[in-house]
Design a protein that fits this description.
This protein is of the alpha+beta class. The protein is 29% helix and 38% strand. The protein has one domain: YjbQ-like (Jelly Rolls, Sandwich), CATH 2.60.120. The strands form 2 sheets. The protein has a 5-stranded antiparallel beta sheet. Strands 2-7-4 form a 3-stranded antiparallel beta sheet, sandwiched between helices.
Amino acid sequence: MKTKEFTLHTDHEGMYNVTVQVRHAIQESGVKSGMAVVYCPHTTAGITINENADPDVQHDLLLGLREAFPDRREFRHAEGNSAAHLKSSCIGASKLVLIENGHLLLGTWQGIYFCEFDGPRTRRFYVKVLADSSIE
């Protein structure tokens, strides 16, 4: 299956629900059973799966990450975004999601999020859909 590329314009920091784009890539692929890999090729952003019903959850996650990884004078990285690199490493660059009957196997409250920790930026993320027959 061909890898699908998506472009996203972000603010300074935020979580962007990309579940619809992932579903679109799965529908376009025609795969009924398999996996989708959602991948972020950036070192100051990431991909996560979390609650999509209450926007306060995204606010709280970002607040918690800011507290866990604050900007510090001791950081040496010249661009001044070391905290964004730490958050990205913590969240991770990709997620693997199961596909069954042509649909993502997400929980009732789950969504797939692109997490921006730097920015504003024009970002890319990729979705690779793999059919069961291609992974056996």
